[in-house]
Amino acid sequence: MKAKLLASVLLGCIASLSAADRGAQEGDPEIGQALFQAKMCNLCHTLAGESGPMANLGGSLDAVGQRRDAAWLRVYFTDPKAVIPTATMPPAELSATELRDMIAYLLSLR
Ligand code: HEC
């Protein structure tokens, strides 16, 4: 009886751990939105009517989630020229977790 209880407690822990893990995999769009400000992405982009001083360089990111997918964004942020040979955007300085959050945010823009 005791062993059964212990087993179900352990299983519960494992289930919640993997749920947390999945959350991290998918990224948090709200954190991504904050990062967009913090990393000054808006400097060269327009988003939701707000244009940075050099927005003519990067253009609008409205609905970017319809144009690009996670795989493309992942490569682009790490090595822009790998997907756009003429790219002028610098590689984004984002940790692995920040990258996931940023991608989750951008994909939510539709
Ligand atoms: C120095 C200016 C500059 C900064 C800062 C900048 N970008 Fe860009 N971005 C560009 C340019 C220019 C392009 C157009 C493609 C190219 O030349 O690389 C672009 C393209 C993009 C694209 C592809 C858009 C599309 O429609 O395909 C995404 C997504 C993007 N930027 C996101 C970001 C994010 C997120 C940040 C902050 C981490 C950021 N940018 C910071 C200049 C910038």
UniProtKB/TrEMBL annotation:
PROSITE patterns: CYTC (PS51007). InterPro entries: Cyt_c-like_dom, Cyt_c-like_dom_sf. It comes from the Bacteria. GO terms for molecular function: electron transfer activity; heme binding; metal ion binding. Residues 27-110 form the Cytochrome c domain. Residues 1-19 form the signal peptide. The keyword Repressor does not apply. Keywords: Heme, Iron, Metal-binding, Signal. This is Cytochrome C. It comes from Thiocapsa imhoffii.
